[in-house]
Amino acid sequence: MIKWSRIWAFLLIVAVMFSVIGYTGLGVAKGITLGLDLQGGFEILYEVKPVHEGEKLDKGTLTDTVQALNRRVNVIGVSEPDIQVEGSDRIRVKLAGVTNQEQARKLLGEPARLSFLDPNGKELLTGDDLAKNGASVQYDELRRPYIALKLKDADKFKQITETYLHQPISIALDEKILTSPVVQSVIPGGTASITGDYTVDEATELAGILNAGALPVEMKEIYSNSVGAALGAESLQKGIYASLIGIALIFLFMLLYYRWPGVIAIITLVVFMYLTLLVLNWMHATLTLPGIAAFILTVGMAVDANIITYERIKEELRAGKTLLSAVRAGQRRSLSTIIDANLTTIIAGIVLFYFGTSSVQGFAVTLMVGIILTLLTNVFGTRLLLAIWVRSNALRKPWYYGVKESEISEL
Amino acid sequence: MNFNPKTWNYVSHRKQFYIISAVLQIVGLIGFLIFGFNQGVDFQSGTRLDIAIGKPFTEEEVAAELKQLNLEPGSIVTAGDNGERAAVRFTEPLNKEQIVSVKNAFTKKYGEQVDIQESTVDPIVSRELAKNATYALIWASIGILLYIIVRFEYRFAIAGVIGLLHDAFGVIAIFSIFQIEVDLPFIAAILTIVGYSINDTIVTFDRIRENMKLHKVKRKADLEYVVNLSIQETITRSINTVLTVLMASVALLIFGGESIRTFSLALTVGLFLGMYSSIFISSQIWLDWKGREFTNNRVTNNEAS
Fold first, then answer.
1. Tens digit of pLDDT for each residue in B182-195?
2. Are residues A387 and A240 in the same domain?
3. Which of B200, B203, B211, B250 to mutate to test the interface with A (most CBs of A within 10 A)?
4. Same structural domain for residues B91 and B208?
5. Do B251 and A242 touch (CB under 8 A)?
6. Is residue B131 within 8 angstroms of chain A, CB to CB?
7. By the number of CB atoms within 10 A of the CB, which of A311, A396, B22, B211 ranks highest?
8. Which chain A residues in 308-327 lie under 8 Å from chain B, judged by CB atoms?
């Protein structure tokens, strides 16, 4: 006799899961941070050297450099810069979604050392003498922008202007002289200005760099990878398209080959995909193109848990067991196999994460998240749904489980 | 030929499969020693520019355009689904000003839709990448070896790792012989194959272990029977699992676009090899090794491990 209460319980669980997914799924998917290969952007690995020969590079200097770089990135206005120290003398900068890549790249690499020079080229003041946020954009009477500088020590600057009265003092950035005004009078307030033929944007950027501070080190690009925004969008679109086709094929295969348990596998796979995206979203993991590949692969691997279980169930059915005991035995016997098989893949994932660089790491994270969730959805989820359904006594014929009557041996 | 995977005798043909694999590996090794890899820019110093032109163009036009900027490319290849991209490789790294000048020149000639993907690698970095990849392969093998020793026994572990190295090296050999360009995701693909091929092997081993408990194994013939039976029992699962993952990787290969092609190709080849080696190599090596217990000292041993 068919127990409708079981069927209703089954349908209710599926309905609840699917409404949650339908309601929040799109938001979850859109909330995932895309890597620079999917939305355009660049990644640069800098080799860092001290400014002066023979100086030592310590952790503090590297941290200062990272902070200065972060402040500069804020000048461009990138939402989530990823700037990290690697090893003892490297800094990796990843910027995704940058509209003007050339400008950003130039801005990052400049040492931005400000100096005030006397007519003989002797350094009088440096960027360190600038007050905090001491650079700002001002406008002259003709509404032309210029950069006003406020210095920490007004007296020191006053003395300098006294010494060099009626002589030119140059203000230079990285050995490039920006302006060389002649000191007309003694300046008491500790203010100076950089004038020139600047647009408002240029002036704002220059002020931003000066406030961000000079880089305490020399940086050399040793690896760079940049992806144009249009190319990134194309990769994303193709990745999604390929995923949909791959997933559709897997669903079709499961349905045709395993029939009713195949339907249950598809239900658990949908939940699996949703949860994987949800976890990636929570972890603030970055989805890269290899990450998309890992995602479809984990779908293929997750379904493996179903296949192992279902093959086992079919064997038990063929051996003449009843449906209920075949399902029980099949699930029990397949568990250790599934765990062993997945743990070895996790080992490979950990190693990949440890030795890999950015895009490979993105791949490894997706792979590991996927495997752990597989155990939740495609092992325990499948068990739950199958257990409820089997006890409902509906769809009992071996055909629904992909077994021919003729294959069943008598006990 | 009438071939039924559920009744075929896998064990009796094992010598043939050993020979096939040995020949493949030797040819692969010779090929690798002669040709090496066609290294992508990830492993070589230099710059690779992927210029999405979005309009019909000729390689000569691209060369002429670059020449005006005083740039001498090592190679120019038309790429993309409709041949709307130019992949240009420079043996010397370009600096950022040069990259900007290329972008400006092409935008001027072909219009605003021009988009550039650039990657530049210093030789120090590329050597590190290759070194890390090798370490990764070694550590992954050691990790998996230890895990199988704990969960099974050392013979399974060694046989399994031989199988996975067989697969990883098989892919490397094929990429080397056909001179397919190797890039960074290729390493990820190799390591995924390692993780995945052992997966198949474990499922077969698991069944062998189970059947060893069910059957009295007194002679080598009994052992052969058990191994053959275990393969027959798990063959549907092995084929079906690889089929589903293959569907995913072939979809990626065909529709996933240029940047993921190497990766999905390596994976597709590796998945095939993984299925092959777990059935025809790893299980059979274990059989021959374990079988020596019976031929050497005639001990009766019906323990599982």
1. 877 787 788 788 87
2. yes
3. B203
4. no
5. yes
6. no
7. A311
8. 308, 311, 315
Q: If you compute the radius of gyration of chain A from its CA atoms, what whole number of angstroms results?
A: 32
**What percent of chain B is modeled with pLDDT above 90?**
20
CATH code: domain of residue B270: 1.20.1640.10
Please check whether residues A317 and A247 belong to one and the same domain. yes
Chain centroid offset of residue A129 CA: 38
Domain count, chain A: 3
CA distance A139 to chain B (A): 31
Which residue range forms the structural domain that includes residue A62?
Answer: 41-110+215-227
Same domain, yes or no: A152 and A248: no
Contact of A103 with chain B, judged by CB distance below 8 Å, is answered with no
Domain span including residue B183: 14-40+124-297
Q: How far is CA B7 from the centre of its chain?
A: 30
Q: Answer yes or no: do B115 and A242 touch at CB < 8 A.
A: no
Asked if the structure places residue B6 within a domain, the reply is: no
In the 8-state DSSP scheme, what is residue B95?
P
Whether A341 and B203 lie within 8 Å, measured CB to CB: yes
pLDDT of res. A250:
94
Q: Which chain A residues are within 8 Å of B92, Cβ to Cβ?
A: none
0.85 surpassed by complex ipTM: no
- Look up residue B181 and give its amino acid: E
Question: Do residues A330 and A395 both lie within one domain?
Answer: yes
Does B304 map to a domain? no
Closest residue, chain B, to A230 (C-alpha): B115
Q: How far apart are CA A226 and CA A43, in angstroms?
A: 6
Quote the pTM value. Answer: 0.80
Contact assignment for A350 to B119 by CB distance below 8 Å: no
Contacts of A37 in chain B (CB under 8 A): 259
Q: What's the pLDDT tens digit per position in A239-262? A: 899 999 999 999 999 999 998 899
Min Cα distance B295 → chain A (Å) is 30
